[in-house]
Amino acid sequence: MKYVGMMLIALALSATGCGVCVAEATRCQGQTAQICDSRGRWQTVMDCDAVQGDSVFSCVEDADGDHTCLPEGGME
Amino acid sequence: MKGITSTLAADFWEYMTQMYGAKVLPKDDDLIKIIRALKRKDLAGIARGLADLNEGDEIGLIALFLSKLGHMDVADFMEGYSTTLGDRIYVPFTPGEEEPGQSLLRQVTTCVHELVHVRQFRRAEVYGLSFAVRYLVDPAQRALYEAEALRAGGEVLYFLSERELTKEQFVGRAEHLDAYGCSKKDIDVAKNYLAMSFKTIEAGGRIDTVAKRGVDWLERHL
Predict the structure, then answer these.
(1) DSSP 3-state assignment of B26?
(2) What's the total number of domains in chain B?
(3) How far apart, in whole angstroms, are the C-alpha atoms of residue B182 and residue B61?
(4) Is pTM, for the whole model, over 0.80?
(5) Is residue B14 part of a domain?
(6) Which of B192, B193, B205 minimises the CB distance to A51?
(7) What's the CA gap between B154 and B198, in Å, rounded?
């Protein structure tokens, strides 16, 4: 029963998108760079596959600990 | 900084708004009539203003007005800010005519910024709520809608600055979001959004499709 309750809470959180992350946290979700908004919801900043440039861009954690789209193999 | 002429700014607006099927309207038109009526609590004036609108965005219109008026001086709103409702962009200037506080450079970045809002209006509804309602009721979401538009304008500014725009200047574009009713926490998220994006732009990436189209046009015409 306890697990059912926990599953319901998790489902409710995922349905509303509230309170699942800490504001300003960043992550890569596949090739998408995301940021956590002030209500604890993951929000897309950019899709690295859609970034245009001379290189192929992919989602990475940089030296500052931020997740963003950078050229594969280093800066252009 | 690359120079923007009056003709170039006007042509940019014409090209970009045509590409996105948007219309440019002067802000001293129906929008200001309704704002003034709202401030006076003049119900008949509000009704007349709404009746003068050509297409049906009244709910979004009112929502945006109430949101903006709650946090911004009405004179500043009328004179300093552009507003987008659906595919209509209300501007407090004539594109190509430089005015105090409305430089030609600012007019170009404003065009890109507002066209991102046009795109946001057209996006599929999320959780059954339209852009206008989410913009009104959710300051955290509002901050991100604005961050997306600020980023696009910033990408064009970065190009026009010949890549000399700094990260601080790029991120600092989110400072004014308190006027939109965003909390410090919302603004910090927006700044981080812009900081993440700046790293990609600095590395040669082009993120926003509206900005890409704008920069491509500017590259051909500058």
Answers:
(1) strand
(2) 1
(3) 19
(4) yes
(5) yes
(6) B205
(7) 9
Using one digit for the tens of pLDDT, what is the confidence trace for A21-47? 999 999 999 999 999 999 999 999 999
B205: nearest CB among A23, A38, A69: A69
Which residue among B140, B196, B199 places its CB closest to the CB of A39? Answer: B140
The residues, any chain, with a CB within 8 Å of residue B10's CB and separated by 6 or more, are B95, B96
ipTM: 0.82
Per the domain annotation, does B129 fall within a domain? Answer: yes
B206 in contact with A, Cβ within 8 Å? yes
- In tens, the pLDDT along B38-57 reads 767 777 877 777 676 655 45
What is the residue whose two structure tokens read 């603004």?
B187
Which residues 175-194 in chain B show a CB within 8 A of chain A?
183, 185-186, 188-189, 192-193
Distances B66 to A22, A64, A76, B120, B181 between C-alpha atoms, Å: 30, 39, 46, 19, 11
